[in-house]
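Translate sequence into structure tokens.
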Amino acid sequence: MTSAETPEPVVKLVRCPTCGGDSIYAPSNLFRPFCSERCKQIDLGAWASEQFSMPADTPPDDDLVPGGSGTGLI
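Result follows.
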């Protein structure tokens, strides 16, 4: 390669989390990792309506009962 030649930019394709289609993961894609504004908005709506949540570990009932094996009130 000579100094006049420039390497071709590497285009990284990722799977869009919403539709599963190809998405260009580069600064030129303002919606990355999504493929479009529509997919980004769908994901935001799902997040806002709490469709994405981590399961909560609830303590066993005996931790809340006085005299139980946990650190509940006595």
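Note: The beta strands are 13-15, 22-24.
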